[in-house]
Amino acid sequence: GAVVSQHPSWVICKSGTSVKIECRSLDFQATTMFWYRQFPKQSLMLMATSNEGSKATYEQGVEKDKFLINHASLTLSTLTVTSAHPEDSSFYICSAREPVGGYNSPLHFGNGTRLTVT
Amino acid sequence: QKEVEQNSGPLSVPEGAIASLNCTYSDRGSQSFFWYRQYSGKSPELIMFIYSNGDKEDGRFTAQLNKASQYVSLLIRDSQPSDSATYLCAVNDSNYQLIWGAGTKLIIKP
User: Is A101 left (phi over 0), alpha (psi -120 to 50) or beta?
Assistant: First the structure.
């Protein structure tokens, strides 16, 4: 149980274009999903918390107009990197909590999306 | 600022031995504790979680929690080369914010 699917696994785009990443909870409903970014040899950095039916909560230093998050249903959250630049190249990973156990439940992660901006 | 600290390693352990990974946290009101394994280029995978003081065993893995000393550890028995990865400790603090350690790189030598 608690499977999170993320698509695409990797994407290469040109500077200035936008890229959309999808995150789906396959066997449970997720009112909240979390988007992380990880640069090579660095730890996970929380970018934003995605809330179904409401605006996402962004961490300090993350531009909400650049990283658009939409959580339109209980099983789907999307992250759109707008006007991507080479410095946005990173590993983006979404996650969701197991539905049982509330806030103390563990996070389960999608397989991640490796974004390369040329 | 609330922190979770791990030795970055690398920690080198012979195959078949016990690997011991440690993590300390600063928020005494922390609620729940998680260990994730992350292979290079992959996303984190949940290994264990623990909520109460003491030991919790699952196969070759044992999580140990000591809230008084504010540390949590992960023991891997009969270490295998496939256990070589970075192990991330994550702690749910008193506000249910998940705080991540930087990870310990574990190398199991055949």
Answer: left
Q: Which two tokens stand for residue A44?
A: 């996970």
pLDDT (tens digit, 9 = 90+) per residue, A12-62? 999 999 999 999 999 888 889 999 999 988 889 999 999 888 899 999 999
Q: How is residue A82 written in tokens?
A: 């707008």
Q: Is A103 helix (H, G, I), strand (E, B) or coil?
A: helix
Q: In whole angstroms, what separates CA B31 from the centre of its chain?
A: 15
- Measure A37 CA to nearest chain B CA, in Å: 11
- The residues pairing with B98 across neighbouring beta strands, listed in sequence order, are B92
Q: Write the DSSP string, A22-76.
A: EEEESSS--SEEEEEEE-TTS--EEEEEEETTS--EEPTT--TTTEEEEEEETTE
Check A104 against B51: CB less than 8 A apart: yes
Determine the Cα–Cα distance for residues B56 and B28; give it in Å rounded to an integer.
20
